[in-house]
Specification:
The chain has 215 residues and is an alpha+beta fold. 39% of the residues lie in helices and 21% in strands. The radius of gyration is 18 Å and the shape is elongated.
């Protein structure tokens, strides 16, 4: 009897392979970032077509190959269809996917990174939350999750409210890290710090960020 792998994850990126197949990069809980081939997913009558797009989150049934996996079946829990009607939100989400892909590694326990990504995309579709704040929180929290957050910078002029907010972001579980609002002053200081830390701790050019900032 053939063995299969069951993996919970979110699709980070999709690229075409010949006329009918797709190559997926999926962030999973306990196998990290994996490459998966979805055979026939581009056929118009394929049940895999809708389930093999970026942001799709669910359970993937896979067969393991030498250098990649093959998709056998999938059960999607959340398609995040709301992003199809939210142009700005969609590009912010694409940036989050690209940032997560930068940190994720194969055969790594990326459960916390996946939780952060999932909750961050959920936050985008919440119309009561400010996308600027969601982005700043994500950019700071992803450093925390990956053990690279350097702490509150010394010698930098930050308001007491901003310091408190940073401490909140650091210590709050990812499942509830977005449940707050801040003043414009605090948001400005958070955004500046998040930009500074991203530039210091990553050596990747995020293409999605170029588009996002141009908007």
């Amino acid at each position: 009897m053939r063995d299969f792998v069951l993996a919970t994850g979110m699709i980070l990126s999709v690229s075409p392979v010949n006329d009918y197949d797709r190559r997926l990069v999926i962030l999973t809980t306990d196998r990290g970032k994996i490459t998966v081939f979805a055979r026939g997913a581009k056929r118009t009558n394929s049940k895999m077509m809708a389930a093999t797009n970026p942001f799709c989150f669910g359970k993937f049934k896979l067969s393991e190959g030498k250098n990649a996996y093959n998709l056998i079946d999938v059960e999607i829990d959340n398609y995040f269809e709301e992003l199809r009607e939210d142009f700005m939100g969609a590009y912010l989400g694409m940036y989050f996917l690209e940032y997560a892909a930068y940190y994720a590694r194969e055969n790594n326990d990326d459960s916390e990174l996946l939780k952060l990504l999932y909750q961050s995309v959920r936050a985008i579709i919440n119309k009561n939350l400010d996308n600027r704040l969601i982005r700043a929180v994500y950019e700071l929290k992803i450093l925390v999750v990956n053990g690279e957050f350097p702490g509150i910078p010394e010698g930098r002029s930050l308001s007491e409210a901003t310091v408190y907010t940073i401490e909140h972001i650091v210590r709050t579980p990812v499942n509830s890290v977005f449940n707050f609002a801040v003043s414009d002053k605090v948001l400005g200081e958070l955004t500046a710090l998040a930009d500074d830390y991203r530039n210091r701790f990553t050596d990747h050019h995020f293409r999605s960020l170029d588009i996002l900032d141009a908007m």
